[in-house]
Amino acid sequence: FACEAGAAHKCQNNEIIEELEKLLKIYTNEKDKGRCIAYRKAIGFLKALPYPIKSSEDLKDMPTIGDKIKKKIIEILQTGQLTKVQKLEGQEKNVAITELSRVWGIGPTTAATFYFKGIKTLEDLKKNQHLLNRNQQVCLNLVQDLEQRIPREEATLIFEIVKREIDDLSGVQGLYKATACGSYRREKETCGDMDILITRCDGKNTEDFLLNLIKRLEGKLLTHHLTMPKRTEQDCETYMGIGRVSNQAIYRRIDLKLYPKEQYGCAVLYFTGSDHYNRSMRLWAQKNGYTLSDHGLYPTQRGAHNKKLWKGEVIPCEEEMDVYKILGLKYKPPKERSV
Ligand code: DCP
Ligand code: MG
Ligand code: MN
C-alpha cells in the first residue's frame, strides 16, 4: 500500500502502462469484467514498481501479473505498441462508442445501443435528437466546450464565485464552508470539471440551502441544470450542472455537493481522489477492519471471501486528518494523490 498510495518515486513503466490502459479502456467499454480486473491489477502493480521492466527476465517473479498480460508487456517492450490495441481501436463499433461517449450523459452502454441503431457519429446524434433525453441534448450541443479542460485560473474564479454566493446566502461568515476537490485540489494545472463540496459547520439543518444557492448562481455562473439536489438517505445532496464565468467564456461542468459535517472529512477525501488513490485507501481500510466511503468510516468485521459480517456505528470524521489518524496513516497532501 505504501507504494500504491503514492510512492516517492517516479513511475518507471509509463510506456507499458499507457498501452495497457488503452486495452483496459476498451475492455471497460465492453464490460469484460474478468479482463478489467486482471488489467487493473497489473497496471496498479506496475505503477508502484520502483524500477523499469526491460525484459521478460524482470517479469519472472510477479504473480500479480498473469501470463497473457506478461506476453503483452513483452510485445510492448519489443515493438512499442500492441497489435491488439490497433485492431480493437480500429473496429467500427469501438470507434463509434468512443465518439458517442464524448457527450456527457452518454456512457458506453448507451453508446452501444445507439451504434446498433446505426448512429455512429455526433452528426448522426444531431439528426436523431428525439432519441436523446434533455441532458444529452444539452451536452451534445455543448460538447466542444465541455470536453476542454479548465485552466487553473478559471477554476479558481469559478470557486470564488461559488464561495461568495455561499457567504452572502448564509448571512454569517464561516457558517458554511466549501472545498474545491477533484483534480483542482490535487493542484493539477487543468481540471476536467469542478467538484465543490459544502458543509454547514454548526451541524444544524441545512434546509434548502443548496437549492437556494443554485437559484442565486443562475445568471451569475450556472446556465444549465443537469440534476437538481435531492436529499439522500445519508443526508447528502448532489447537484450537477453547467456554467460559465462570463457570456463569452467556455461552458464548464460544475458539481456542487452538500454533506453533513460529520461526513465531511470522508467526502473531501473521496472527491479529492484520484480514483486509483481511493481504491488503495479503501483496500487499506478493509485490511484494518474498516469500511471507507464518501459517507464515512465504519468499523467492520469480515469473514471468508471478505464478506461483511458486522458493520458498526459510523466514526465521525470532520476532517481528512481524522481518517488518516484512525487508519494509522501519515497524512498525504492532495498533490501527491494523483497516482
Ligand atoms: N471518484 C472515484 N471513483 C469514480 C469517480 C470519481 O473515486 N468512479 C472520485 C475521485 C475523483 C473525484 O471523485 O478524483 C472527482 O471525480 P472526477 O471525475 O471529477 O475526477 P477528477 O476531478 O480527479 O479529474 P478531472 O480533472 O477529470 O475532473
Ligand atoms: Mg473533477
Ligand atoms: Mn466531477
Structural description of this entry:
The strands form three sheets. A five-stranded mixed beta sheet has the order 2-4-7-6-5, sandwiched between helices. Helix 1 packs antiparallel against helix 2. The longest helix has 19 residues, at 152-170. A hairpin with a 5-residue loop joins strand 9 (296-302) and strand 10 (308-311). It is built from 15 helices and ten strands. 45% of the residues lie in helices and 15% in strands. The chain is of the alpha+beta class and 339 residues long. The model is unreliable at 1-8 (pLDDT under 50). The chain has helices spanning 14-29, 33-48, 67-79, 83-90, 92-100, 108-116, 122-127, 134-141, 143-146, 152-170, 182-185, 209-217, 261-272, 275-287, 320-326; strands at residues 150-151, 176-180, 190-191, 194-200, 222-227, 237-243, 252-258, 290-293, 296-302, 308-311. Bound molecules: 2'-deoxycytidine-5'-triphosphate, magnesium ion and manganese (II) ion (MN).
